[in-house]
Design goal:
Length: 172
């Protein structure tokens, strides 16, 4: 922008100097007016196109950042599906249970029996065990210290089960 303003300023001065060498000096005003009008049009064109290009690049940057965040969260969730049951219980089960409640309209707090029956009908007994918010494995600790192993170190159901659960939620 600074270069454009400086160039137009120099153009106006150059046109006036050229007009001084003409035998008819009345044309100085005409030539200077044309040079100033061209300079103003160039500055206006530059300002309009600068705003458009900045808006387009900002939108593209925002979309790219949003896509990178979504991809990172998705990769993290998929990796947790492949890890232990403790990770599944801590991160995926609450999210899947919320999605199930929102998709079906069944609230666990209103009618537990209807909530569980709906879940078993939708997912089947095997997959419902991985969505059911009450099926969290015990932590393996109590007030006296560690107790017997509880199964929290067992493998999660994996990517295939997560994919099937998400497909069934999507079908609702």
């Amino acid at each position: 922008m600074k270069r454009l303003v400086a160039a137009t300023f120099l153009m106006v001065i150059g046109v006036e100097l050229l007009a001084l060498f003409l035998p008819d000096r009345r044309l100085i005003v005409v030539f200077a007016g044309i040079a100033v009008a061209l300079a103003l049009l160039a500055v206006r064109w530059f300002l309009i196109h600068e705003d458009e290009s900045a808006a387009v690049s900002t939108d593209a940057d925002d979309a790219a950042k949003s896509l990178r965040r979504w991809l990172s969260r998705t990769e993290t969730l998929v990796s947790r599906a492949e890890s232990t049951r403790a990770d599944w219980d801590r991160h995926l089960r609450p999210m899947l249970a919320r999605q199930f409640e929102m998709a079906t309209g069944q609230k666990q707090t209103k009618d537990r029996a209807a909530f569980h029956v709906t879940g078993q009908m939708l997912f089947g007994a095997e997959l419902w065990a991985w969505v059911d918010p009450e099926n969290v494995a015990p932590t393996g600790r109590d007030e006296r210290g560690p107790v017997a192993p509880t199964g929290r170190d067992e493998r999660g159901p994996g990517r295939g089960a997560l994919g099937e659960i998400l497909r069934k939620l999507e079908q609702i």
